[in-house]
């Protein structure tokens, strides 16, 4: 997991900041998907700054910025037929659809290109923007006007006043080969990188010379609906003059979806452009609306990736990395090998059980064969791209190879590394006395999504830590007292020191969500910090709730765990962190350095009869699943709680309602049945 996080962040920097992508978009998406799966399987190993809480990355400063009026999301990935079956079952469960009820889906190739949003007003192309971080993208309007298949004016008499088309920019295999053959400078690694680099040229004349193409598959802002179905809307896009993929199909069953996936996989090599899977979507747009979105992905769509590719190579050595939480993470350093067009030189080994050939529950993996330094191992890339080890060649094992002895002490500080019962990971007990943990915590604190102090990056943080100038985040705000030391540091002058100290002073005012994220509490990522900030609005209310929630089952505990996206694991992590004297002391010292923690207001409540109210659902809902009811209530501006209290405004009681309904009656809280709730939920 640590290695995957590094790979994803390196890919972000290479593509979005340096404009020199080192892996393709499919690689990036699949790396994130693998990390998501591992975090779900091992939540105790998840890190609060994980890139899985983000879409893409911040837009480049070289381009103007465009704020998407409708957020551009990423897709949940699947790698097996069983994942598709589970996906459809989850949809039916969420919507309370019986197995014999129709559920039409669409299936279309997943183009391996660059996402683009094109805004048309009165039929004229007025703006084009990359996805960026999903909220803000890069303004590439001048370049997009040179894309083949992208009309400057929409066709037909019934053109919408506003239409934001979304699709994929790509380059054909033939055009890619011709581009590289005639290249005088940079040679691109693959068509996707070529398309991305061509679209993001600062000089539109360069883009004009590049053979770019475009497939439309969706939309953002609209003046009026295109159709009442996904397939009908895509047909409407085609009628307006936009190019859509002819391989899109409507499917009635899981078997139909898998059949289309198999057909497209077999045709993959003959298409003339790169695809890395098939995308499934619920066809009925009304059902899409009911299903809604998670933090970064829609519930109604799935990307089914193609199978892995493999290669054998030598495992040169096993290294141990120490993370911010003290986790000892083993990494395999490999003799570089090309797997499916990407050079792989390392792979995560998860934990000591994985190296020993057993799962967390003690069952065997790889037939119980352990992994040793010097072994020949088979590397595969799940979904075409993920580097992992799935086999060891005993025939080629060196005679002097010995079982790997996982360290019992921290390689960074020498402290005992303990593994608690039930935990799959071994952790350093050194805390902030461990330089690896201290530096990683400080690096997280100054990261882009946290305090983002201009001029204070990861290298500077490490240097200042080793110089003894900062040991915890609060110390950063005392660096002004070391002005002379800074001036004597190589690379610093009067101007740069003044700029750094001014940037630090500016961060004494910080939004609540950034502060919560910057604390580096396990399981509290960027999205979770935003959810917490929107619920509690200000620092005192947040701290008071976390302190009061130390008793599980209390009203404050219910306030935490009732937030959609905040579960038991995250709530325990929050309360534990604030209860530890050393960690709480560091937090209090940091807050004392701040002059203002900006309130985060909740999004403006919609015009509904339950906007601003606190609801509790109890009993069995027969016509709408509990998950959908919660999502619908929050969409209407209500807060959903897991327990009834004097602050509860409304209780929805289905059959079987027990103690919560009785408590509501005792407190005089209004109670309604499911039929009345459905009238509210459906307007």
The counted number of beta strands is 24
Let me know the average pLDDT: 87
Percent range of helical residues:
25-40%
Low-confidence stretches: none
Label the CATH architecture of the largest domain. Answer: 2-Layer Sandwich
- Figure out the total of helices: 25
What is the CATH superfamily classification of the largest domain?
A: DNA ligase/mRNA capping enzyme
Q: How many discrete structural domains?
A: 5
Q: How are the elements arranged and paired?
A:
Elements lengths: L1 H16 L7 H17 L23 E3 L9 E2 L2 H15 L9 E7 L2 E8 L2 E7 L5 E3 L2 H4 L17 E9 L2 H9 L9 H9 L4 H5 L4 E10 L7 H10 L9 E3 L2 H14 L7 E8 L2 H7 L9 E5 L3 E14 L5 E12 L2 E7 L3 H5 L19 E7 L3 E7 L24 E2 L8 E2 L6 H11 L12 H9 L6 H4 L6 H5 L6 H13 L2 E3 H7 L7 H11 L2 H10 L6 H7 L6 H12 L1 H13 L2 E3 L15 E5 L7 H10 L3 E3 L8 E4 L5 H9 L2 E3 L1 H8 L2
Parallel strand pairs: 2-11, 19-20, 21-22, 21-23, 23-24
Antiparallel strand pairs: 1-6, 3-9, 3-10, 4-5, 4-7, 7-8, 10-11, 12-13, 12-15, 13-14, 15-16, 17-18
Helix pairs in contact: 1-2, 12-13, 17-18, 18-19
